């Protein structure tokens, strides 16, 4: 694992190498802003000799030249997708700290400093992209104007207008529920509404954070086609919004439903697609030895049982597995295929440390505060915070 904080010269060298040999991952993870930060760090340290300074200038020039390559190159196959920087992602904005998938949680994450805001998307009856983990209002989260939580099973967004969705308060997990017991430290903020994705973009703009990216998930289930738009409609509405808001170059699109990712790749090939996989929990979406409705035909059984090989064949850019499903060998295989690995959802510091040592390229966590600490302990660079209110 690279140690940028301690060794900025080496970091800039790595950035230069990556810029030259891996334009795709470089464009995404070595943004010009990050390279500038590395360059600034390098110039601010006391060099022992003039030769060092000259070497630094030469490297800076090489980075500039490599960036031109990045902007003009096509998409090569890379020998390894090992990323030069580590991705700190706030899962649902950091659900252990603030109400999930709300402007409150995203403002909290932006204020502390993360690389990526992870969030989930649904689409309302009137075609608005809202931010929510379930395909509808969640009975454990949504309280109506009468102050009562919705009875199960909730209401799908495709049956509600945005105006109707906005009547519900999602600022406090239903007290006494099993879900509330999982997040005892979440600060309740009554009055919080389900945000639209456009409102999240506005918050990011207002924060002034030009570094942060958004990992946005299409919440769609092939087994419940009546609870969301079909894959093409879903992708169209999301891509239209991204273009209108000029956010297409700041997102990755993730999904367990690889059908939507296939459509994104065809219609917006510059947007990195993140293939989510779940192999061993209650509700797997991929299987080593049988086909699945989630995989758009890219079932691992056709690729020697290998999930990363299936994702590579599908044209995915990043593999995002349940962290319990990976080991060092699987991560190595993904890297050899040119796939970075970003695991979810890791909330214990000891797991974070172990996975960083194992070589993952990013971690998605409900506790971005603990993840920052774990990353710092490994010598990884920390994104600065951009204090903002929701
Ligand atoms: O981004 C990965 C993670 O969010 C997938 O799990 O169920 O929290 O959306 P889930
Ligand atoms: Ca998610």
Structure description:
The chain is of the alpha/beta class and 390 residues long. The protein has 14 helices and eleven strands. The longest helix has 23 residues. Bound molecules: SN-glycerol-3-phosphate (G3P) and calcium ion. The site of calcium ion has 3 residues, from strand 2.
Whole-number mean pLDDT: 85
- What is the oligomer described by this structure? single chain
Q: Using only CA atoms, what is the Rg? A: 21 Å
Which structural class is indicated by helix and strand composition?
alpha/beta
Under CATH, the topology of the largest domain can be stated as TIM Barrel
The counted number of beta strands is 11
Count of separate DSSP helical elements: 14
Instruction: Name the helix and strand elements from N-terminus to C-terminus, one letter apiece.
Output: HHHHEHEEEEHHHEHEHEHEHEHEH
Strand content: 5-15%
- Described by the principal axes of the CA atoms, the overall outline is globular
Helical residue percent band: 25-40%
CATH superfamily of the largest domain: Phosphatidylinositol (PI) phosphodiesterase
- Unreliable stretches (pLDDT < 50, length at least 5) are 1-57, 63-83
Tally of distinct domains: 2
Mind summarizing the main beta sheet? 9 strands, mixed
Bound molecules: SN-glycerol-3-phosphate, calcium ion
What separation lies between the terminal Cα atoms? Answer: 35 Å
**CATH architecture grouping of the largest domain:** Alpha-Beta Barrel
CATH class wording of the largest domain: Alpha Beta
């Amino acid at each position: 694992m690279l140690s940028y904080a301690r060794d900025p010269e080496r970091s800039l060298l790595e950035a230069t190498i990556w810029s030259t040999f891996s334009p795709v991952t470089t464009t995404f993870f070595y943004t010009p802003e990050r390279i500038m930060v590395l360059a600034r760090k390098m110039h601010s340290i006391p060099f022992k000799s003039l030769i060092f300074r000259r070497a630094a200038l030469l490297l800076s020039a090489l980075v500039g030249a490599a960036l031109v390559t990045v902007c003009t190159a096509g998409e090569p196959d890379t020998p390894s997708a090992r990323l030069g920087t580590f991705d700190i992602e706030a899962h649902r904005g950091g659900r252990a700290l603030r109400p999930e998938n709300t402007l409150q949680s995203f403002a909290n994450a932006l204020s502390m400093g993360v690389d990526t805001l992870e969030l989930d998307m649904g689409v309302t009856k009137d075609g608005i992209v809202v931010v929510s983990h379930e395909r509808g209002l969640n009975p454990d989260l949504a309280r109506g104007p009468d102050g009562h939580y919705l009875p199960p099973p909730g209401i799908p967004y495709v049956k509600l207008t945005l105006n109707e969705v906005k009547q519900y308060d999602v600022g406090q997990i239903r007290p006494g529920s099993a879900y509330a017991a999982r997040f005892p430290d979440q600060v309740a903020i009554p009055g919080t509404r389900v945000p639209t994705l456009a409102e999240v973009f506005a918050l990011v703009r207002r924060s002034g954070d030009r570094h942060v990216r958004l990992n946005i998930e299409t919440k769609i289930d092939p087994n419940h086609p009546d609870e969301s738009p079909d894959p093409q409609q879903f992708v169209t509405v999301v891509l239209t919004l991204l273009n209108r808001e000029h956010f297409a170059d700041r997102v990755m699109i993730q999904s367990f439903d690889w059908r939507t990712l296939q459509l994104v790749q065809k219609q917006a090939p510059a947007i990195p697609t993140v293939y989510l996989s779940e192999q061993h929990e209650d509700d797997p979406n991929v299987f080593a030895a049988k086909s699945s409705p989630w995989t758009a035909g890219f079932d691992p059984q056709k690729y020697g049982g290998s999930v990363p090989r299936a994702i590579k064949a599908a044209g995915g850019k990043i593999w995002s597995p349940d962290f319990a499903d990976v080991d060092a060998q699987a991560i190595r295989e993904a890297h050899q295929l040119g796939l970075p690995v970003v695991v979810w959802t890791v909330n214990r510091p000891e797991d974070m440390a172990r996975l960083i040592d194992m070589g993952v390229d990013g971690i998605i966590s409900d506790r971005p505060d603990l993840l920052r600490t774990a990353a710092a302990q490994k010598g990884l660079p920390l994104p600065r915070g951009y204090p903002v209110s929701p």
